[in-house]
Every structure is written in C-alpha cells, then in structure tokens.
Amino acid sequence: MQQDHLLTAKQLSRADIEAVLERAAEFDGDPDAARERHAGELLALCFFEPSTRTKMSFETAAKRLGAGVVDMGSVDDSSVKKGESLADTARVVEGYADGIVLRHPRQGSAKLASEHVDVPVVNAGDGAGHHPSQTLLDLYTIREHAGLDDLSIGIVGDLKYGRTVHSLAHALTNFDARQHFVSPESLRLPRSVRYDLHEAGAQVREHEDLEAVLPNVDVLYVTRIQRERFPDDDEYEAVAGEYRLTPELLAEHASDDLAVMHPLPRVDEIAPEVDDTEYATYFEQAHNGVPVRMALLDSLL
Amino acid sequence: MTETELRVSKIQNGTVLDHLTAGEALHVLAMLGIDGSGGETVSLGMNVPSDRLGRKDVVKVEGRELSDSEAEVLSLIAPEATVNIVRDYDVVEKRRVERPEEVSGVLTCPNSECITNAGEPADPTFAVLDDGVRCEYCGEIVRDDITAHLGDGPQSV
Fold first, then answer.
1. pLDDT at B154
2. Residues of A whose CB is below 8 A from B116
3. What is the pLDDT of residues A256-272, one digit of tens each?
4. A38, A104, A131, A170: which is the annotated catalytic residue?
C-alpha cells in the first residue's frame, strides 16, 4: 500500500485493497511464517472509546508479526482525563512506538493525529466517520464467500452513524458491486457518503423493506443501531428493533448461499438461532480481523 | 458618473470590491476579518443598481490591498465579485475572483462531532466544491448559507 497512514477507505485504490487481501491470505494460510517479520517494533493502541474485537485483533496481529504492543489503557486512567489534547497525546505516543492505532469519538480525529506525527496512524474508528481496517476484513470475508465483482450486497441498519457502513460503501466503489441500503428514513446514509457514492458512479439503491431486498443479494451486512450515537433516547427508541433477522425470515426470503455478516457487537438485530445456520458468517468475519490486520500492519510499519 | 460613485466616495489607496452579491457586503467584511478595529476607513453600498447583476453590493476599504488569497475566499460568497486595487486614486489592478481548491481558517465546521470543534490545534479546512464546501476532517458538506459558518477573527487561506 503506497500510503503513510490509513485514515479512510476513500484513500484505498482497488490495487491497494487487493494487495492487502492477498497478503492477508498468505498470513491466514501460514501465520507462523510471519512470526519475526516485525520483531523489535512497537505498536501503540490508543482507544478513546471501548473496543473488544478491533483492539484485540490489532494486538494479536502485531504480536503474530513479532512486534510488541503498548496500550494507552482506558481514557479514565490517562492524561486525557486531565484535559490533554489529542494532538499532544499523539506527539507523546509517537516517541514510544513505531505506529499508532487510534480510536476516538470525534470525526476526523485520525487525520488530525496524522498531521502531528511521523509514524503511521491507523484509524480504528473516528466517531460516526470511518473504520477502514474493518472494511478490509469485511472485503476479505466477502471475497471468500461471494467475490468482490458482480456482487450484490444489502447493507442494513444504522447507515447514518455506522462508520463501518460508510467505509465499506466507499471501498466497494472500486468493484463491480450493487449496493442496496436498507434503513428507516431517519437513519439513511449521510449526505457526505451519498455525495461520494454519486461522484464515484456507484450502483446504489435505497430501501426501507428488508424482505424485498433479501432475495436479490449475495451478502447481507447487518449493523447495530448504535444507542451511543443518538442525541437522545427518544430518537433511538423510535428506530431500535426495526430490523431483526431470524432463521425463518432467511429461509423464506434469502437465497441458500447468502452470507450474513455483521461487524459486531450485535444486540438483537440477528437472532442467536441464526448462528447455527449456514448463513452466519459474522464470527468468521471477526476472526479474519487478525490476518487482515497483520497484512495492514505489515504494509505500514 | 455612475450611480455607485454618487453614493460611495472615491478612495486614495486601498481596495474596491465591486459586483458583490446583493446583501452580502457585511458578510464579506466579516469573512475578511474587517471589523473596524484596524482603523481602516470602510465604505459600503448595499443593493446598488447594477447592469450586470440587477442589484449589487460595493465595499471600499481605504489603506488595505486585498491579497490574492483573500480574494479567493471572497469567491465563496460573491462569485461575481471584482477586486480593484487603487493607488493614488487610480485603479492599478482589476481582477475577477477565482474559486480556490480549498480554504482554511475561514469557516467553522457545522458538525459538532468534528475534531475541529474539540479545542484541538486544527485549522478548519474545507475543499471547495462546485456548489458548496466540504470539511477536510469530517467530510461534512455545506451548501446553503455558508456565511452562517464564518469563523471568528482575521482569516487567511
């Protein structure tokens, strides 16, 4: 990847994506082969918002490459609590590590941090903005199950605040993909993403009815309605539980080889009974975070 | 003598901003950071009849020559504007404004969740689109009422 940082999926070309996915497949096939590739290097994890999968998979990926990890810990235990700016935090951490993985509640935070340091910055989620490393593992999973060209994908749920959705939508413009967006009116894609998709000439349709979309997609990418992003609880309650995937719904409407994906964590948008069906791809998707993030770190560090 | 010249006196040295979008003169001054505190003599005419625009605003600033970058910023709210540099009562330079590719430090991002609104050392920077501007940090697009998002203090590009 010919980039110093990974800030948004918009910066990724098809060649960039394919290079990371190819490398990820190599690591996936033989994780031990990469064991000493980055020995002696250190990756800093700066998570200003909670994370399980992203943080742990970056840590696992770094260690599988032979690199060490330094973790800022929770915001409550850091100087952020004393009012330190993100720019200052980034500059300090730059002195400790060879790369920074950053999650922060503010949109544009990774770009800001990247402007103040000379080490690579990976955006691991900037509020309701972007989450490009998640997108790379999403693409890896989609490629395994349906291929990235001549793809029909349904993207369901919180399209407004869903950073994984925004990044995935941007990245898919590099491929021959028809994107069906399913959401309540109030959670439709934000204007900025809509603008980019239009500029890229993406094949996009918007829907409110999930059942009508199910028969026509190879992949269904389900997202959680994120309570923490809503300005007030009333707005959240109005749309929570709008879509719920069950084995019955899938059996009635979906094609047999549909892959159901989810960036996790889920709440109630996918019934636990779906886990035991052939549709469920989300745990495999989460596992793919390690080889894909190994490939990403390998290209940046 | 034109109707404009009847209403606004000539200046000896400085800048005449002509063909401003009618009603935008005060916003232009705000965008350029001209609030009178610098001691400049400022004259303005609003809703002046214009052959080209029907109605226009005119601003004359004594003792200050607008830079090219300031003129670019001006284009965001007055795309038809002309900038006249005056020395010793003569117009020595006259040019139309051109839209820049980006502006920095002029506008604030309307997205409250943008990092530029978090007290960080970030200069709000916007890419200039055909029909608006876009925050380079969070991607927020502003199409309507750009002047509502003018920042405080003197601006530069």
1. 37
2. 108, 112
3. 999 999 999 998 899 99
4. A131
